[in-house]
Amino acid sequence: MMLHSLVLPVLLLCSFAAVCAITPKNFGKGLSQGHIHLEEETFYVYNVTQHDGFSAALTHFWITGGTYMCGDDKTACDGSLAGAGVWNPFVDFVVFRYYIDGETNASIVFSPNMACGVGPFANRTESSNSPPSGPSPFSTKTNETNAPWSSKYFGKGSADGGWFLNVKVPFQRSIKVTYQLPPIPGHPEVTALRAFVQVRGVESLPITYGGIQLPSSARLHLQRIEAKQYQALDWVNLLDVPKAYGAILMNTLAVETASLNFMEGCVHVYSPYDAPFPGLIIATGTEDYYNSAYYFSAGQFTFAEVGQTWVGGGWTTENPGQWSAYRIHDEGDPQFFSDGVKLVWRVGDSQKNIDGVLYKCLAPPGCNTTTCPPAGSPTNATVWSYTWYYTWPKVDME
After folding, report:
1. What is the pLDDT of residue 84?
2. What pLDDT score does 185 carry?
3. Residue 90 φ then ψ, to 5°
4. Are 119 and 310 in contact (CB under 8 A)?
5. Nearest-CA neighbor of 323 among 136, 110, 126?
6. What is the pLDDT of residue 57?
7. 264 φ, ψ to 5°?
């Protein structure tokens, strides 16, 4: 059922000197026990009704799973897929697409777990209170961060589904939300997922980032890496935008590899796009990017803007380790960019000899392993990444 409501006009700063009145208007849809099929289907469409110079924005997304359907929407799967005990896992496979202002190709495409900071590491046929699953391999603690948990923009409110995402997705004219259940690996008999879904938003909603109100022309985008194979010491562009002005909102990074030494990888920001190496070094090791240290030696945590949401596996070739974490760049650590940007992480890192001392993060691309030896023994890795970022025309921020 779609709900609309009006509230009294409010005053806010519209620019450095002007004050103007707006009348926010809510919109949205909630679906109980709907069926998400193997083909893409439209869940919700909304067209802007107020044109007052402010963006409308989708502000809330939530999903939890129900029964798996085999054959048609009236036939529940049986056997290992029957019953409430398995409601959680397949929700992570559902693909949502946001089509902004009539675009043909959706600029935002996501699955709930990665959008909410967690890598795709779960048994898909068993219910679990995790993510995550266990302490850091180097921790003497046993604390785990099981559901429920929350960051500033997302979290998980239940062992069975309960993913929520509160990122503001601005649009000027319209938004279309679709969903799709891809074929489930190992379960060709599943033809649909019975699910509960909510999306909500507000018209005439100013959007801020780093304490600055963004122009109404601002757009949110998502760049993804999906299970891509990288060699040890490869450079990975988590975000690659050759020409734009904007800001990095947040990133989820997930890695499967045989060595924990992948965490030696530094993180660099290059803006403008062609800025020389090493750019701006924003992390001197992977765990540093998440305000932790020594391979997350204190174990799991989920803070407002940083968190380690998964660590498990054996960290061997036969039983690779699995790890994921999130970083939000907003009030605590805003990252604006101009004339393009690259957010670059490395699978492990090399060390450069400077006056007899080995320094990480300073070994440039192309430096051989004799001159720039690796830190530890990183191994090849499978990588997933979601990087959300805003852009806007240059003239709209001048």
Report:
1. 52
2. 79
3. -70, -15
4. yes
5. 136
6. 96
7. -70, -10
Q: What is the pTM of this model?
A: 0.90
Q: What is the mean pLDDT of the chain?
A: 86
Check whether 125 has a pLDDT greater than 90: no
Burial class (CB in 10 A: 0-12, 13-18, 19+), 141: exposed
Q: Quote the radius of gyration of the chain (alpha carbons, Å).
A: 22
Mean pLDDT lowest among 19-33, 230-244, 321-335, 382-396:
19-33
pLDDT tens figures, 26-49: 999 999 999 999 999 999 999 999
- Across the strands, what pairs with 360? 351
Among residues 385, 397, 301, 315, the alpha carbon closest in space to that of 346 is found at 385
HEC-encoded secondary structure of the chain: CCCCEECCCEEEECCCCCEEEECCEEEEEEEEEEEEECCCEEEEEEECCCCCCCCEEEEEEEEEEEEEECCCCCCECCHHHCCHHHCCHHHHHCEEEEEECCCCCCCEEECHHHHCCCCCCCCCCCCCCCCCCCCCCCCCCCCCCCCCEECCCEEECCCCCCEEECCCEEECCEEEEEEECCCECCECCCCEEEEEEEEEEEECCCCEECCEECCCCCEEEEEEEEEEEECCCCEEEEEEECCCEEEEEEEEEEEEECCHHHHHCCEEEECCCCCCCCCEEEECCCHHHHCCCCCCCCCCEECCCEEEEEEEECCCCCCCEEEEEEEECCCCCCEEECCCEEEEEECCCEEEEECCEEEECCCCCCCCCCCCCECCCCCCEEEEEEEEEEEECHHHHC
Which tokens sit at 155?
């979290």
Alpha-carbon distance of 382 to 272, in angstroms, equals: 29
| 356 Cβ contact list (under 8 Å, min separation 6) | none
